[in-house]
Amino acid sequence: MEPRRELESRGFVGQWRVYQRQALDAFDADVAAGDNRAYLVLPPGAGKTMIGLEAARRLGRRTLVLVPNTAVQAQWAALWDNNFPSTQPSASDCGTERDLTSAMNVLTYQSLAVIDDDTDSAVRRKVLKSRDQQALLGLLHPNGRALIERAAARGPWTLVLDECHHLLATWGALVSALASVLGPQTGLIGLTATPPTELTAWQHTLHDELFGTADFVVPTPALVKEGDLAPYQELVYLTEPTPDEQAWVATHRARFAELMLELIDQQVGSMSLAAWLRARIVDRSTAEGNQIAWSTFERAEPDLAMSGLRFAFDGMIPLPDGARLREQHRVAPDAHDWVNVLTDFSIGHLQRSEDPRDGHALTAIKRVLPGLGYRLTRGGVRVATSPVDRVCALSESKIAATAHILDTEDAVLGSRLRALVLCDFESMSGTLPTSLKGAPISNQSGSAQLVTAMLAVSDARRSTPLNALLVTGQTFACPAAIDDHLVAFCAERGALVTTEPFDAHPALRVVRGRAGGFSPRTWVALATAYFLSGAARVLVGTRALLGEGWDCAAVNVNIDLTSATTKAAITQMRGRAIRKDPNDVHKVADNWSVCCSTADHPRGDADYLRLVRKHDDYFAASPQGLIESGVTHCDPSLSPYRPPVTDAHTITAQALRRTAERARARAWWRIGEPYEGIDVATIRVRSGGSLGVAAPRIPASALTPPVPGRLNPVRLARSARTGLSAVAAGAGGVIAYANFGPVAGAATAGGIIATGAGIVTAAAVTESRRLEQAPNALERLAAVVADALHAAGGAERGAEALRIKADPDGWIRCELDGVPTEQSQRFTAALDELLAPLGEPRYLIGRKILTPPATRLARAAFAARAVMGLPVPGAVAWHAVPRWLARNKDRRRHLAQAWRTHIGPPRQLRADSPDGQAILDLFRGDNPLALTTQLRTTWR
């Protein structure tokens, strides 16, 4: 049957969801406008396959769908045959062979990108970069070229590219060449769960040529809120290396620590490392003897500056002038920081020195760097394999953690448990690197084989076994205890199989087909059916096969043992568990990340930092009831910069308890409630001291902040009258403290008579009440930033759009509501700068920190001073004018007006003025109120 007629004879038998109709409407709009290329971004479980099939059906051309693997290929074919039935009995089934004779054909990307083995790798890379179409096609094996020639003879075509983030790989350029060969009339439909946000320039060019911009995007949280995906919670299990592994790590730590001590104490080399860091980072002197401004140094050498501040935080060097310790700096130096400073020391000093002692130090550093995962060459540092990182990543403790997780989930879910465990590989191929010689590690470490075998052994202690199946691209295996049952199950479904002992693991049996054609496409379907039946409640596989595209709505526990951190991989792996299950309307999926770290080596945090990257830009409901990106949605106490030192066990125990609290996790999502569907930048603030209150109605003469060390005649006169004792300096953004004598003697009798005792008393009473209810200064500072940005055109809304809330853990959360994401980011960045200790701002703005006394009488006396315009007791805080607002005079004027409205009389100074320099010299970098900020992103 002619392809158009066959496609027209078919129709979808289900009901389209709202967002699926919206995606198809966007596609139809493109076609109507003459654009035959569409790019649709939907999360796993959203029904991309159905959308892609329907879009191709509507175009009415012979279709070729390219997918990542054979398991996904089988799913596409089954959905076409079963969900798009034809009214014509002569209609063909979905084609899965290379002959391309059907109206709908599904092949893997690999079937197209079969590279000729004789092609030199350097030549291949050059051709791929050049993207010369004829040269690209020349790379193909004859089978690949025959496929393209066959396709060109059977057009016109629609190409559907499933999970098209794979186009970043080799076959991306080849698909582009294929589309060109098939002609400009070719329809092109790209489907993915991952927006192209992490592409190189070359990848962006390829992507834009194929698709242009995205035609339709829907984020995962939106579909959970709509009720079209299952709610989920992100959980983390933190573990440490086994005793044997820890002992091995300790030996590497000892070697590293010994060298660092020698370098720092100048036992090797002509200069100590500490002296070099002081010269490079603290002094920063030019050849002429001038000091390089910290902001200039930070821009020129951001990595070294970051590491230097961590060394300053750790007490090895003083805090450089002009520097500011942010959240990311308040951690001990990690391996990357050590590498940064050792590289700078080696290249900047040791390699240039002719002193034999420095040659000895250089050799010692080159010896120790591979233990951190780097190699030092004359041109700089190159990344190498870190043995400590490998031992932690492949630790047997992570397999023990997997068993613990499954025991806990089993106790909660029982027969409803359907768990997927994802590994990087079935078993390591090749020999281990020499750097791992003597390490407690083997080719089985961290492998899917070992995980399955250990779970099979642990079934002996369970009242109801898990019966975990091993499902990879090379192997299908089961526990020995169920091999007969699995063989009979497969026979009932027309698959004749047998089992044989698994040489490496006696507890397992390998499943083999009795006839040819027993491939992953077949055994994935059989394993999935067995899993759905409940006879096996755990599948263990590789992310290459089961971590992407594999569809099983029953999965309710997902355990990630992989090292993958890219957004595409994380979105795909998490997507295996969040499909709605028609047999479990109350399903809540638990997505587990298992992490092994140790404080016994600088590289011992590498697996934790991978954990952090896994959760960057991935949104999940948090215990605060927010939909938040970042590792804090696993537990609010987790830092994005370092692993927990003392409370790891508490964090893990809390995660295990949450498995029994699925109803609470579901409630965090507030399914069915309205949502805006936008990312919102949030700043969290915690202070170790009072920021005071805001009282802008107090006369300016009482509130105008003085410059430390400079008293004007009016103040001197008032000091004499009121018993003002002294002015002392501290910092708080930057704080100058003023201590006054007894308030009872604040005003002379003549002053009171002249002013009118009754008027003063009444005004003081009113002001005292107002001070009692005065807003917190943090709220008013946030309002200042919001209104200044709004007035200056940096935000669509001002202080009326502020959301300020106290979190249960003591942090104050602040965000600007109802504005685009980039504006909310501008607001949080500006407020963060305003609250920070002074670094090297262009402008300063000051305020009095008002802290009214607690008792009524003292507060009344305080108020009396204020209404008479006498300086009131309190510290002075100097803040940096945020960079966006400091950029021009008009923006600074809007800031001053907002300050006057919410805080009181502003006093702005240029940082390079004499007064500004005096303030910076006294207070730069100080943070006596222990103000800490965190920048986060939430979705709502």
UniProtKB/TrEMBL annotation:
<dbReference type="Pfam" id="PF04851">
    <property type="entry name" value="ResIII"/>
</dbReference>
<keyword id="KW-0347">Helicase</keyword>
<keyword id="KW-0067">ATP-binding</keyword>
<dbReference type="GO" id="GO:0005829">
    <property type="term" value="C:cytosol"/>
</dbReference>
<dbReference type="InterPro" id="IPR027417">
    <property type="entry name" value="P-loop_NTPase"/>
</dbReference>
<keyword id="KW-0378">Hydrolase</keyword>
<feature type="domain" description="Helicase ATP-binding">
    <location>
        <begin position="29"/>
        <end position="213"/>
    </location>
</feature>
<dbReference type="InterPro" id="IPR006935">
    <property type="entry name" value="Helicase/UvrB_N"/>
</dbReference>
<dbReference type="GO" id="GO:0003677">
    <property type="term" value="F:DNA binding"/>
</dbReference>
<keyword id="KW-0547">Nucleotide-binding</keyword>
<dbReference type="GO" id="GO:0016787">
    <property type="term" value="F:hydrolase activity"/>
</dbReference>
<protein>
    <submittedName>
        <fullName>DNA or RNA helicase of superfamily II</fullName>
    </submittedName>
</protein>
<dbReference type="GO" id="GO:0004386">
    <property type="term" value="F:helicase activity"/>
</dbReference>
<dbReference type="GO" id="GO:0005524">
    <property type="term" value="F:ATP binding"/>
</dbReference>
<dbReference type="InterPro" id="IPR014001">
    <property type="entry name" value="Helicase_ATP-bd"/>
</dbReference>
<dbReference type="InterPro" id="IPR050742">
    <property type="entry name" value="Helicase_Restrict-Modif_Enz"/>
</dbReference>
